[in-house]
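Continuing the series of single-chain predictions for the mutant panel. This is the parent chain; the variants come on the following pages.
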Amino acid sequence: QVQLVESGGGLVQAGGSLRLSCAASGRTFSNYIVGWFRQAPGKEREVVAGIGWLGGRTVYEDTVKGRFTISRDNANLTYLQMNRLKPEDTAVYYCATSGPRLAIPLTSNEYGYWGQGTQVTVSS
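Parent structure:
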């Protein structure tokens, strides 16, 4: 019922910026929480950032704090602004949605819908 499509990935030099977008379609009433995850080759998928349904509550993985900003402007669009990118940020980035929760989930199995991912490659 919910489809998610990420866009905005690409190749960027270290120190550069990218903005990822997550567009939702279908039944979006369940998109109370949106999370961004990433998975690098040989590594487990990890949470990057999450945002609550009102947009006022956010969480970030420690290494991206101060560099990445998650935001949403409506029920269908969520963004991840990535600044001062580092080679270790290289990964496939996914957006996912979760129903209402007391806290923003930090594990992938708590999100019900996923996009196909977008590749982010940061060169040194």
